[in-house]
Model the fold of this input.
Amino acid sequence: MKEKIILIDSNNIAYRAFFALPDTITTSSGIITNAVLGFTNIVLKLAEDFKPDTIICAFDSKGPTFRHKMFDQYKIHRKKMPDELIHQIPLIKQVMEAFNIACIEKEGMEADDILASLARKASGSYKQVIIFTGDKDMLQMVSDDIKVLSSKKSIADTIIYDREGVEKKLGVSPGKVKDLLALMGDSSDNIPGIGGIGPKTAVKLIKQFGSIEEIFKGIESIKSEKLKNLLGQNREVAFMSKKLAILKEDIEFDTGLMDTSFKGLDFKKVKEIFEELEFKNLVNRLPKYIKIMDFKEVLPEEATIINKKISLKTFTAGIDHEVIPGKNDSKAFIAALEGDGRICGLIIYFGGDRAYLVEKQTMEKADAVLSLKNLFEEKTIVKTGIHLKAIIKFLMEYGITIEGTINDLGIMFLLLNPLKSGTDIFEIAREVLNTEIRNASFGPAENIAGDGTDDDRNRNMKNSQMSLDLEGTGTNIDTGEDPVIDRSSEQVQTALKSLALYDQIEEKILLSVREKDLVRIYREIEGPLIRILAEMEYTGVAIDLDYLSGLINEYEGEISRLTGEIHGLCGEDFNINSSRQLAEILYKKLKFPALKKTKTGLSTDAATLKAIQHTSPVIGKILEYREKTKLKNTYIDVLPNLVHPGDGRVHTNYNQLGTSTGRISSNNPNLQNIPVRTEYGRQIRKAFIPGKGYDLLMASDYSQIELRILAHMSEDENLIDSFKRQEDIHTRTASEVFAVDYDEVDPDLRRKAKAINFGIIYGMTEFGLASRLSISEEEARDYINRYFGRYPRVSIFLKKLIEDAYKNGYSTTMFGRKRYIKELGSANSRIRSLGERFAVNTPIQGSAADIMKLSTIVLYNNLHSEELDSNMILHVHDELVLELKEKDQKKIEKIVRRSMENCIKLRVGLKVDISTGSNWYI
Done:
């Protein structure tokens, strides 16, 4: 017997939802969706609160019912359903059917009768039946296993009625509700009842006699002549009213209706409907309701019960058996196991019952390492996993590299879904297979890797002491010592079973990658980059702790000095870090002009303070205080704590697809945000130094790569010509836009031209450019028009980018990377304008990110082919940083320039600026 079923009075709930939410809730095309949204929210809330096995929605039939034939005045006072609601009923049904919720409608029947029949039928199959309605006539159905959930003052305010609850509310038991309505009537359905008999009298009569049949049998015993006459004159009305109130319980339904599972919702279909209806916030609530996967569907039974111990020799023989050089259809699926935030073992799955759990203890055995080395370095074996970067770093501890084709399903998934912020096996299975993995204690390798400070992520990982409480299934390798991992728990079992899904996921994702033309971007860029980023993270970058210690003392002194000066200029002590206190001092006490308000008061943000900086020296000191405080708190104080004690290096984590344009980001620490435009920010770079055994750091970054890409993609002759002449592009733009000779351009005109050049790339509006240059919008419009007048093909190209994005729903880079732009479908013009800016900058910025990644791969391969002793240690925006020996400086500089400037051919070429020094302040 199943646990719980919920039956919904759909017309009643839809009606309430319609009037509970404003009719301003519409799609961008103007379709009113307030009832659909309200109804869907209610259903999801019911699912969250009650966790039913099944939900069924009952709808009123169109046209008259059998009750209208009995009484032509039935429901005559009920207002016609508004057209705006009528149009939403099919949409409600569409959403419910995607939820795998049956929608039932029977000709000539009301939803109440359908619900009553369903409830009676379900009471034999479910332990608990819940009817959700606002009609009190449904209370007659309440029994030991049937409850009524009803709204009180609002649709969100509900109460559950059991037998006791019904009697408390109405004064009679559920079985007597129809008699109660027969006497007092029901104005909502226009059941007449007997005029003059109210609830109190009706309850008194029912308690005295039991039913209307017994009342009329004993009518002569009623002492009140008035009541006796009232009853006698309305006998037929009373019996008709009872017939109207009685709900049918014998409607027949299709077999199998009760077996529908709400948990089997079609995730993709629901998501598509929500996106079509523009219910953006509801998508996040879906994962709770997706089908729970039965692993027996995907994993042979024998693979789940392997518990026997095998010798190390048997293990190595088993692994060696899988390594057949030259065999091109071999696959190995790999997942990491986590303990205390560290990788403590791997599960390697070859299909069928061939699964091995390799713990760190096993990795200490030379024979095991040799077998695993042969496996992972065999190029003909395809290695598949999710976020393999952390696993590659784990294997590097033992001198093992991964060679050949690697299918990182996490990276592929993010290529297909660039707006996702992160993935693991559970999210991918949910999205790709419409499957929810139960008991999800097994985490993705990217999370297993910890937060960037754990020993397991760094060079001394194998020396760390771990106390692990992990259990699971799989082949137990007997190393002659107590196992670190017990193989009988859910965690390892879940990991093992999850691996069995990889084959299905891989097949579907590879198909999607081909269909979306993303093969090149993965095989040439993202796939090869995984190994390189793993090595960069593993190597890390050395930090000068003595320098940082001195910088901490210096900044503490500077911040203390600035605090005193600010307090002195303001005439009192206050918390400079408090926006509220600062606003009171600046605007109320010192009477500075208030330029902007926020929800919490007058603004003290940087832009506002810079606008009034000329009015007093205290503003400049506040801005300086903020900059130094932020740098100290974010980097100077934090970096020493992130240095690994074993190698003196910081091991950041690179997010390969950390932005929507494909650019790499980093965290722990976030090296991308170290300021480079201010001297204070650049001082922090001095702390990054060559590691032991190396002499220099070499930084290389592309010169004006985005403008070069714009020239290449737009094919604008004037822009191309300027680059080919090796002119300063901003000076050339100033000359063209402001109609002055190239040699006559002054710094101010060049500054304006630079803002225009980059404003074009970023899709900046007239308002944005006006704000940037502190000019009027009319002047900004004139500058933009003059720019496009001198570079006409740029204008054509940018318009084409926007047109294509509207047509396709996405923008693409030179390499085919896609960014989906939902903002273009918004009814809000400001949001659409944002989408148009995305459509302009994505192909340019995204192509720059692709080229940066490609050049990293080319440079890495060239450095290794030359067998030069150097390491890539930093990847920040358009900049690559290497550590090297001084004797190799000239040779490496040539390789860097050749690799980065020739990784791809542009019409205007690529130019790299290279600088070398004893630290990153170069």
In short: The first strand starts at residue 2 and ends at 9. The chain is about 45% helix and 15% strand. The chain has a mean pLDDT of 84. Residues 2-170+248-288 form a domain with the Rossmann fold fold (CATH 3.40.50.1010).
